[in-house]
């Protein structure tokens, strides 16, 4: 079963979840036997940028000792054989330079999305 | 032949991203797939006759895309039959379910 | 012939229109004798929480009885009854980790605890799968 998971709402509950919940789910679905690819679009294209840092939070005396690390999670997904793509126009509109993107993330023009969708049994827009 | 069912729940007046989904719908149709756009929740708001998105519905319909709007969402927003864009048909959950369960259909909610 | 529909739900109750649409779709499918699988992820695990209580409405001045405030646990309980009456199956998985972090483990009869592998199994065995995301 080939699944394309589209992620478009970034930084939603990442701090308390210690993950992006859909990236986490995608990795989990892959482990459960689905052939998963991830497409980052809209503000979620920013997940592909090196240097994200959500550390340093504390509330009262309670510190966030194990903060979310989206860069690590994207790299782990790529290493696990999960293709991670991003919509090229969404990245360029947001001024994301190519040399700041995580190695292994593939850019795809927006106009090619219908063709991309044809390669999957399911297209799940999260 | 693969069919695509795109379900739009978002209000295009609310987002600078409002071209994304119609472009996707049209691009899918251009690849020869049976393509349906089903508006639901605040996604039905542009289906009111005279909205600034009328041209968009005409363009999609002329491309061979069937456009439905959820009957409950229309009624909840006081968009009656006479108020609804001529390219948009009112339909209920029964129609949505039929479309979902059609063989070889990919359903994409936005 | 009966078919099987799988839904992934994410929204917490009392907040988003998508919860209503999802319940309507489930009702329609079960009414026609189709089987429905639900994977409740994130806030959607709260849909079936047993401790939900109806309330009076001080703005409208209605009593508890007059208001007859719906709860999602009652609606979903009613959908389980509908499934039984129609000879259809409603399988409802609450994502276990989502339940734990929300303290949402006390739910009505019907749903069971599970995780993403159940969703994969649902999707593989269904005629259609629809993800209804949160925003």
UniProtKB/TrEMBL annotation, chain A:
<dbReference type="InterPro" id="IPR027396">
    <property type="entry name" value="DsrEFH-like"/>
</dbReference>
<protein>
    <submittedName>
        <fullName>DsrE family protein</fullName>
    </submittedName>
</protein>
Automatic annotation (TrEMBL), chain B:
<dbReference type="InterPro" id="IPR027396">
    <property type="entry name" value="DsrEFH-like"/>
</dbReference>
<protein>
    <submittedName>
        <fullName>DsrE family protein</fullName>
    </submittedName>
</protein>
<dbReference type="InterPro" id="IPR003787">
    <property type="entry name" value="Sulphur_relay_DsrE/F-like"/>
</dbReference>
<dbReference type="Pfam" id="PF02635">
    <property type="entry name" value="DsrE"/>
</dbReference>
From TrEMBL, chain C:
<protein>
    <submittedName>
        <fullName>DsrE family protein</fullName>
    </submittedName>
</protein>
<dbReference type="InterPro" id="IPR003787">
    <property type="entry name" value="Sulphur_relay_DsrE/F-like"/>
</dbReference>
<dbReference type="InterPro" id="IPR027396">
    <property type="entry name" value="DsrEFH-like"/>
</dbReference>
<dbReference type="Pfam" id="PF02635">
    <property type="entry name" value="DsrE"/>
</dbReference>
